[in-house]
Amino acid sequence: MKERSVPAFADVVRTITHPVAETGRVGAWALDSGRTGGLRVSVIAALDETPARPPLADEIFIWFGAPLTGGETLSHAAAGLLDAHTKTEAQRFRQDADLSSFIAAHAGLRTMLGAALGIRPVDVRITRDPQGKPHLSTDQQVSTPGGDLHFNISHTRGLVAVALAGRPVGIDVETPAEILDRDQVARLVFAPESLAALDALTTDDARNALFYRFWTLGEAFIKATGLGLAQGLDSFAFTATGPVQLIRVAPSWGPAARWRFGIF
């Protein structure tokens, strides 16, 4: 019997350009820009179109993808992209849909980092700091004018996201309505300003949309700072409408103007 060929990773993950319109998922990114002024956000149309250089301090490269097949097929397709540690981590997933998203996110990240560094994806070495935030190993870190190479990933069932930037960055994607007891969760974790904005709304659809605006922005922010949940989603608050800005933040992470945000 003729052995079936293993599909390429690019053939089992679909690139997404408009996450909300194409998948119904929502998300946000956060960047510690350290400055004011222009910012260039590039949504990568295909993984092989990732620029062959690190992003500059005023740039973010973002890629969205949707797994087209199950976790086992994705694992085989991405085998040449992942290191041993990532393959071991993948074994903890029991649901095929969760495994698919995990593999797609990590393979996409390594593909983009490999392009930026000019090396094979499997040769990218990633370490974690004491708070658990991933970084490039010291010997692979590269500096660009005004910054270094930073990255972050997020995945939910049906959508993955990868962000590369020249400054500390965080990204989050979520499936709306997946969080149970939404209002109770909000009262447990959000800042008073956020709760007041939610309470002022009269329809459930509006409350749900605002909840996920605050949730995804908060997740992206604490991933960019590197503190994670230890920072607390109640230690800051965002504008409820219009361009995203911090209206309150701890002095150690101020001034608020140093942070840039985007939602999708």
**What does the overall shape look like?**
globular
Largest sheet: 5 strands, mixed
Say what the CATH topology is.
Ribosomal Protein L22, Chain A
Mean pLDDT: 92
Q: In CATH, what is the class? A: Alpha Beta
- Poorly predicted runs of 5 or more residues: none
- Beta-strand residue percentage: 25-35%
Give the number of domains: 1
Helix content: 25-40%
Distance N to C terminus = 47 Å
Characterise this structure:
This protein is α+β, with helices and mostly antiparallel strands and 264 residues long. It has a single domain, classed as 4'-phosphopantetheinyl transferase domain (Ribosomal Protein L22, Chain A, Alpha-Beta Complex), CATH 3.90.470.20. It has eight helices and 14 strands. The chain has helices at 9-12, 19-23, 71-77, 84-90, 96-117, 182-189, 192-199, 204-225; strands spanning 13-16, 26-32, 40-43, 59-67, 126-128, 134-136, 143-144, 147-148, 150-156, 159-165, 169-174, 236-238, 246-249, 259-263. The strands form five sheets. Strands 1, 3, 4, 9 and 10 form a five-stranded mixed β-sheet that branches. It has a three-stranded antiparallel β-sheet with strand order 11-2-14. A two-stranded antiparallel sheet has the order 5-6. Helix 3 runs parallel beside helix 5 (96-117) and helix 7 (192-199) runs antiparallel to helix 8 (204-225). It starts with 8 loop residues before the first helix and ends with a strand. The mean pLDDT is 92.
